[in-house]
Amino acid sequence: MHDIDLTIVNFFSIPLSFLLIIFSALVIQSIIVKMISTHIGKIYFNHPILFKSMNYWAIFVHEFSHAITAIVTLNEVKDFKVSSSGGHVVHSSNRTGFFQWVAVQAISASPAFVPPILTVVFLEYLGYINIPNIILNVSSFDTISIISALYLDLIPYILKTIGILLVNLDYSKIENIFLLFILVFSFSAAKPSSIDKSKYGTQGDLQNLIERFIKYPKYTILLVLLYVVCFWLFLSINFTFYLYIFTLFTLLPVIAIVALACNYLFITLIHLFDKSSMISVVISVIAFALVYLVMPQYTEKQYLVNMASIAILIGILKVTK
């Protein structure tokens, strides 16, 4: 393991620096989700079926995240409801105390983590990413070095890797189409929901999450202390494995941000297509074709399949308009 100066400051600041990076990525993710939720309304009037379908799928993924986390944390799912306008999961448990508090917090926060976890598993299964190959490289184990390594090395590397992957997808393979479907449509509700209590008379996941941290300060402090102790305990047992874990937890919000960017781009392209003249559409398609022509890794078959996919998408948009 790296030589570490374990002063009392470093004892807390080093593990908390990892949390700071993950939290900042989650904040960015939440901001983009907010942008998407208002942006998607642009296609409502021209494409109501597509609009409702996108909402239904995103809400399903959101509520599924709650349900699967409730089951994993040994809570009983009593009700599961999904529609294109909203949904909910009702869960219960006979347990009380700290561990049930942690379970309920995990259930509330689950939409921010479950979709990217499923996506990472799928990417790993398809052989598109290999987590050991993108492991965090820390030259010096101190707070500044950790933050620099995450912000300047790991996160840009993940963005570059995923970006190149998306640009070079071969749509002649059904698994790639499914992957693109997951990325574009599954993350627009990938955060704890926020509801205006004064308007609806109820609270969303985000309010409940924050409220429980404030309402139970002893549990909050105990959770932080438990995290810090476990950080150093497991780090001393297996340094490389622990870096794998933190690489994965950094990868999750970055995957979500990339997927939300795909969703935003998809909605923007539809909106621009609706507003554009036919000549503008033709010019855009030609420009898109030229970009793919200069990519030598594409075979003629892959190129034709991808162009046909675009034509089918345009046709679907016309039919559902």
What does it look like?
- By secondary structure, the protein is mainly alpha-helical.
- It contains 12 helices and 2 strands; from the N terminus they run ααββαααααααααα.
- It has a two-stranded antiparallel ribbon with strand order 1-2.
- Helix 1 packs parallel to helix 10 and helix 3 packs antiparallel against helix 8.
- It is globular and about 65 Å long.
Q: Which features would summarize this protein structure in a list?
A:
321 residues; mainly alpha; 12 helices; globular
Brief digest:
With 321 residues, the protein is mainly alpha-helical. The chain is 71% helix and 4% strand. The chain has one domain (8-124, 142-275).
Class inferred from helices and paired strands: mainly alpha
Side by side, the strands of the main sheet go: 1-2
Helix content percent band:
over 70%
Total separate domains: 1
From the N-terminal CA to the C-terminal CA, the straight-line distance is 59 Å
Largest sheet: 2 strands, antiparallel
Report the order of strands and helices: HHEEHHHHHHHHHH
What is the overall silhouette?
globular
Unreliable runs, pLDDT <50, ≥5 residues?
Answer: 196-202
